[in-house]
What we know:
The chain has 141 residues and is mainly beta. It has a domain at 10-79: Carboxypeptidase-like, regulatory domain (Immunoglobulin-like), CATH 2.60.40.1120. Helix content is 7%, strand content 25%. It is built from one helix and seven strands; from the N terminus they run E-E-E-E-E-E-E-H. The strands form two sheets. The protein has a four-stranded antiparallel sheet, with no helix packed on it. The protein has a three-stranded mixed sheet with strand order 4-1-7, with no helix packed on it. The chain is elongated and about 110 Å long. The chain starts with 9 loop residues before the first strand and ends in an 18-residue tail after the last helix. The mean pLDDT is 79.
Amino acid sequence: MFRLTTLPFLKKDIIVLDEFGHPLPNVNILFSNGQGTITDSNGRATVKAVFITQILTFSHIGFGTESIAFKDIEPVVTLISETTSLDEVIIIATKPKPKPTPPPKSKPKSQWWIYPVLAVAALGIIKVATPKKSPKRKIKM
């Protein structure tokens, strides 16, 4: 017969503040295995650990990251603001080049010369000759 036992959790209630004593909401509090919690809107959180040697990492955007062993955590944890200056970024916009227009589709060549010829032919001045069709030849094999 097997007996299941669970390890008791070690529990601490903490509050995370900035260097001016203001509570920090949404501070990430993570163990090395990736599990953890975040602080509420008042900077408060409850952390639970199985071993007192587990390391907790406190991180928040705009603040330095602190790593503290569970046994060394005080009821109040203070994070120091950290500023990072970025290099200047210059964006140059150029007017996009227009797409080349495709050449117009070739139109069938107009037979502009035929109209005067037909007009003259209609008057009977000239006779328009039509090509004669050649008879089809049978090829014997």
